[in-house]
């Protein structure tokens, strides 16, 4: 009979991944702090911090914490893989506590984390992963509130928040970008230049794209701001720039990606708007 009841217990789960804004909520739990934890360190260093979770509800909230590797690509793929599976993952360096807990009503709880950089002198560049914060719905089979003996069909929404943990080591590595797959597209009746940009270097870069158009006489016809993204080594994004304000003619275009300081990259192309 117990086996039959177990078979009858079915759970349909909808997972929603949210990793934007500065105050994050699932149910009545919020993460009080930034989505990005960034630190410069040397081999052998240890640094620590806390993630503060707030429960503003009148009922207790169950939460679990785990690690995941994080990658994204210009074709809109976003990957959250097993921790340590990406070559530049710092997940094996991270410890945290507690891993699963209940936050009482109108209370807060700190998740303490520690990053221990290996004593490998060859390490250089940016290493990263995510600390995932996930609420456990009271109707979920994972919840301690569920009566596992009673057969049920449950639809539970699970919301996760990805807190990116970056470790920057040294300054001897390279910083480089690769441009590819540029094309003009029509989006909502706007003329848009779309170009894929990949980080082929060793460090995370905050990339801001802009486009300068020059007419056939070499005279500047306009400067056009584009997207800005954070690019980790080996990741890519599709940057877009609205060129609708430019006249319908042929141009020489200079595409610039400014990553701060001396890290400015560019590519020339011909465009017919």
Structure description:
By secondary structure, the chain is mainly β. The protein folds into two domains: 12-169, Immunoglobulins (Immunoglobulin-like, Sandwich), CATH 2.60.40; 177-272, Sandwich (Immunoglobulin-like), CATH 2.60.40.10. It has one helix spanning 2-8, and strands spanning 10-18, 23-26, 29-32, 36-41, 46-55, 61-72, 78-81, 94-97, 100-103, 107-116, 125-136, 153-169, 177-187, 190-199, 205-214, 220-231, 236-242, 250-258, 264-272. A hairpin with a 5-residue loop joins strand 6 and strand 7 (78-81). The longest helix is centred in the N-terminal third of the chain and has 7 residues, at 2-8. The radius of gyration is 24 Å and the shape is globular.
Topology (elements, then pairings):
Layout: H1 2-8, E1 10-18, E2 23-26, E3 29-32, E4 36-41, E5 46-55, E6 61-72, E7 78-81, E8 94-97, E9 100-103, E10 107-116, E11 125-136, E12 153-169, E13 177-187, E14 190-199, E15 205-214, E16 220-231, E17 236-242, E18 250-258, E19 264-272
Parallel strand pairs: 1-12, 4-12
Antiparallel strand pairs: 2-3, 3-5, 5-10, 6-7, 6-9, 6-11, 8-10, 11-12, 13-14, 14-17, 15-16, 15-18, 18-19
């Amino acid at each position: 009979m117990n086996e039959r009841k177990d078979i009858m217990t079915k759970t349909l789960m909808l997972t929603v991944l949210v990793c934007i804004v500065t105050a994050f909520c699932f149910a009545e739990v919020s993460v009080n702090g930034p989505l990005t934890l960034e630190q410069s360190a040397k081999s052998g260093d240890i640094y620590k911090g806390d993630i503060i979770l707030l429960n503003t509800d009148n009922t207790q909230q169950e939460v679990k914490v785990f690690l995941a590797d994080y990658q994204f690509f210009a074709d809109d793929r976003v990957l959250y893989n097993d921790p340590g599976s990406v070559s530049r993952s710092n997940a094996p360096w991270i410890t945290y506590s507690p891993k699963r807990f209940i936050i009482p009503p109108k209370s807060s709880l700190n998740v303490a984390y520690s990053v221990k950089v290996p004593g490998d002198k060859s390490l250089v560049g940016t290493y990263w992963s995510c600390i995932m914060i996930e609420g456990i719905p009271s109707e979920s089979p994972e919840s301690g509130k569920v009566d596992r003996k009673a057969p049920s069909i449950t639809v539970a929404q699970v919301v996760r928040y990805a807190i990116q943990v970056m470790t920057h080591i040294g300054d001897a590595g390279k910083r480089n970008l690769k441009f590819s797959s540029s094309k003009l597209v029509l989006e909502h009746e706007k003329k848009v230049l779309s170009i894929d940009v990949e980080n082929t270097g060793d460090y995370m870069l905050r990339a801001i794209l802009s486009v300068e158009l020059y007419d056939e006489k070499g005279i500047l016809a306009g400067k056009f701001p584009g997207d800005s993204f954070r690019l980790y080594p080996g990741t890519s994004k599709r940057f877009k720039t609205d060129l609708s304000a430019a006249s319908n003619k042929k141009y020489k275009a200079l595409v610039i990606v400014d990553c701060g300081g001396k890290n400015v990259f560019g590519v020339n192309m011909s465009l017919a708007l």
